[in-house]
Design goal:
Layout lengths: L3 H12 L2 H4 L3 E5 L20 E5 L2 E4 L5 E8 L14 E7 L4 H18 L3 E7 L6 H8 L11 E8 L10 H16 L1 H7 L3 E7 L5 H12 L3 E5 L7 H9 L5 E6 L18 H14 L8 H10 L6 E7 L7 H4 L6 E5 L4 H11 L1 H6 L3 H14 L7 H9 L5 H6 L1 H40 L1
Parallel strand pairs: 6-9, 8-11, 8-12, 9-10, 10-11
Antiparallel strand pairs: 1-2, 3-4, 4-5, 6-7
This protein binds adenosine-5'-triphosphate.
Adenosine-5'-triphosphate (ATP) binds next to helix 7 and helix 15.
Amino acid sequence: MGDFAYDWIVHYLEHHRVWNESRSFKVVARNAASRPAHSVKKVDGPTDHPIPIYEPATAQSSSGYWMSIVRARKYPSFIAIHGLRAFTNLFARLHSSDKQVLADLIECAKQRYVEAGASRVTVHLTSTVHNLLPSLGAMTRDADAAHSERHWAKTVTKSRRALSTLILPSDIKEAILADAREFLDNEEWYKMTGIPHRRGRYGAPGTGKSSTVHAIAGELGLEIYFISLANPGIDDYTLAQLIGDTPARCILLIEDIDCAFPSRDDLDDDDDDEHQKKDHYRRAVVTAPPKSAVTLSGLLNVLDSVSSEEGRITFATTNHIANLDAALIRPGRMDVKIKYGLATTEQIEQVFKVFFPAVAAQDTDTAALARHAAAFAAAIPTETYSIAQIQGYLLTKKHDPAGALQGARAWLVAQQEERRALLDAKQQRRAEIARWQRGVDEAYMIYS
Ligand SMILES: Nc1ncnc2c1ncn2[C@@H]1O[C@H](COP(=O)(O)OP(=O)(O)OP(=O)(O)O)[C@@H](O)[C@H]1O
């Protein structure tokens, strides 16, 4: 884990169906890792998928040499308890004394891995397993094991998303891509000047911030290393370590950076009065701890440490730019900040058209579809709903553009009711905080 050649070699071996050709193998249940070893026999329910562990398996290297592959547990099986994954090492023994054979194999495995992912985008996620391993390190006297929970653990691949499918003002879309390309084309210059490429995206949820990063990754053929500061397993130390473990030429996506700061959710939408806002913020700072174990100084250190030297692009996203400390978003630290707004009338019309392409192809009267799209866009108030919300509604009317238009009014009413209920809940929470604050003030007066 955290070793990129591992993924390349595993992909190479899978491609060669190494595991299928082995004659001797053991079978364990996938969730055996989360149970004491003796309970493996009592496998219950269809969710227990067996994972074969084959040994020894053999494969041919790219230059025709034989190699044997052995998979071995890193720790004894009794340690595989309560959510700990069964850490395994993969040993590939190449039957040649020529080191070049090994270098060729790794190069070939890398190329195949990259080619296989050409139509996909790979996203690397972090593992949050962390409590038991420090003691495990002590048990095994393995200093490394004490920190071995902090790694890039899983990868998921997603189909590439074309930038054209993003519904954003076209100048913004083009500017975003040109900006990323410019960085990669001028790597040398960035290296010489030491200027890093860090970009911030902010705006309401569901407006396309993450989707843009995915589209750019596909367009530039880069893998994404994704960290959410809302993840409770991430603190300053793990953040620094994870970022230190990212490879050259990748996209580092740090989501929810506002989580490193006290929450100001309560005053986002409906506090017009600046004084009132400040007062609520003061109270929110007192009452609401940050949602993340990452501190501002930890985050700044980490951002400053991501240099431009190796073609890394850093994107940070937040739903609450007002919560961020000015130090974090000052020029030089976050050079370009792009706002993602709620859907405009033009965007709503575009979503509608994108949503019913099959109908458009069959429809003899495509003009009718265009009219539906325009009428739908006119019926939805501009800059009030996110594209994700509108897509959510259109999903309920798949293949039925006329129905989508007819149902728009009822959907709006339902949305407004939902909004009102949320507002009520917010106000109730504020009243509770205010009551609590009054209690604290009174107690302070009595005892001081
Ligand atoms: N501008 C857009 N163009 C196309 N699709 C969009 C757009 N905005 C949102 N979507 C769709 O809405 C869903 C959520 O989008 P996405 O995750 O990019 O939003 P986000 O702004 O990153 O949200 P969050 O702040 O909650 O992470 C996705 O399915 C995406 O396809």
